[in-house]
Amino acid sequence: MTASWEAALIRWTASGLIEDSTALRIRDWEAGQVRPDSHRFAALAFGLGGLLLAAGFLLFIAAHWDALGAGARFGLVLGCVALLHGGATASAERIPLLARTLHAAGTGALGAGIFLCGQIFNLAEHWPSGLLLWALGAAGSYLVLRDWPDLIWTAILVPAWLWGEWSETHWRLANAWDGAPPLIGTLLLALAYLAAPDPGDHSVARRALARLGAIMLYPALIALAIGSHAGPGSAGSTDAPPALALALAWTVALATPLGLALLLRGRGALHLAPHLELRLFIALLWSLVAIGCDTHAAPPGVAFFGVYALGGVGLAAWGIRERRRLLFNLGVGLVALALAGFYFSNVFDALGRSLGLFGLGILLLGGGFLLERTRRRVLARMGV
Description:
The chain is mostly helical. It is 77% helix and 0% strand. Helix 4 (70-90) packs antiparallel against helix 5 (96-120), helix 6 (128-145) packs antiparallel against helix 7 (148-170) and helix 8 runs antiparallel to helix 11 (276-292).
């Protein structure tokens, strides 16, 4: 029991709100509960063990791959997947954390097995199909087991498959707008992941999905910034994708995040992430402005970085409204990155090396101090 709960229990007993016998029963019950903190070391150990096990297995296969025949290779790959999931099933009742780790490693081994089988039987004609099969396997595992690692596997593999299909078909782009659908779709999907948990929701799966969204957000924003400055023929060709393919890409890019948002609201949970569709629409408009703002300008101007700073302010406002520290911190970080990007691209070279470094020091010390003080004040008011 934490000190705050203990202190509250003492106050309630002293005020006569609960009897001494009730307080004693509460203490006994709390003492018998397994705390989440007690699982952290075991989770870390099992997670690291799973990674090392997978790495060791892959190195072993790589060392002996050329000496094996096609049948032995296929049997080895299939046996690896079966062994991991079989071990997870055997340990599910006694050591649930170990079972979850082995199931997650088994899903990872499934992907390796799919691509290795394609190599064995010379089936690597369209490589994104392997990602699709891997994603279907991860989704099926999640539907059966309901473990959050399989949900994360699925959330990673589905956009990876879509990216693979796009890059395989339309990697030669005429301008920034031709490459906009996957960039905007990835950003909207990261925001949909971030919106997965309700402000009061403690679901491990939804919180893991939100953390995945946080990991995806900055790379998606950086890719959007780079893509918005892709000049004509930058990929080696000026051939634009066909109109039908481009329309399909826009449909998938917009429908996938929106469909996920509606799915997360399933079973009547309309309180989850209120007005999420409106926020995704605002994010879409922001993305379109970001792509069209100062396109091909070198270096990007005030308007370009101002759009990204405005996006950070909007993200921070979202976090304040839902009292979520993660969203607020991501928004503050985006504002800081926009300011730093503007300084390096427009101010640093104009000042010269010595004055530029001096100004950078002032920016980091003064700007960092102001941002951190503001961040702490807002978090204190939010009570998180």
